[in-house]
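Final report, Chapter 2: Outcomes

The project's central promise was a pipeline that accepts a single protein chain and returns its three-dimensional structure in a standardized token representation, suitable for archiving and comparison. That pipeline is now operational. To close this chapter, we reproduce one record exactly as it appears in the project archive, with the input sequence first and the structure output second.
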Amino acid sequence: MAEWSGPVAGWSAIVAALVFGYLLGSIPFGVILTRLAGLGDVRRIGSGNIGATNVLRTGRKGLAALTLLGDGLKGTAAVLIAASWGPPAAAAAGLGAFLGHCFPIWLGFKGGKGVATYLGILLGLHWPTMIATALVWLATAAVTRYSSLSALVASALAPVILFLFGEIRYAELAALLAAILWVRHRANIARLMSGRESRIGRP
């Protein structure tokens, strides 16, 4: 990745990357795909979330998979496109994409919880960390059968994994995104603590 040519150009690129990432991240694939499929507004189904987990509640696994792919790759695309401006711009684009997904202007700032986009951003920033984080998610899900708990554990470990790989600048970003992701999962955390959280494969 290229380094900054100067502080003015650097900050201009960072702001541009942040805005670009936000606009890309705010594309609500879950809403778009379910409407195109004639299923209405996914926000009126299940939890009301726009992510793949709630799309799956429509019974259309293909749509859920496409939503997961779209939500993940928009984070990856934002990072990779902005990377030509340097690592700080790539990080800014990742932050923007995550904020765009969680707080999309098109939906009144009421978006998803950010798990797929988080993984997509990691893929763009440092793919070995994305693989390791995904494996943590899968292992936790296999043992506990809780999707939300798997996301919480995986997102919390991702900054540690980045740090161990020596990607400290990206570890700081991942920690910030993980904190937002945890806040977005506060209702899930409450249900986990009370034993009312739904397990994978169960209503």
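Archive annotation: The longest helix spans residues 61-82.
This record, like all others produced under the grant, will remain available to the consortium after the project formally closes.
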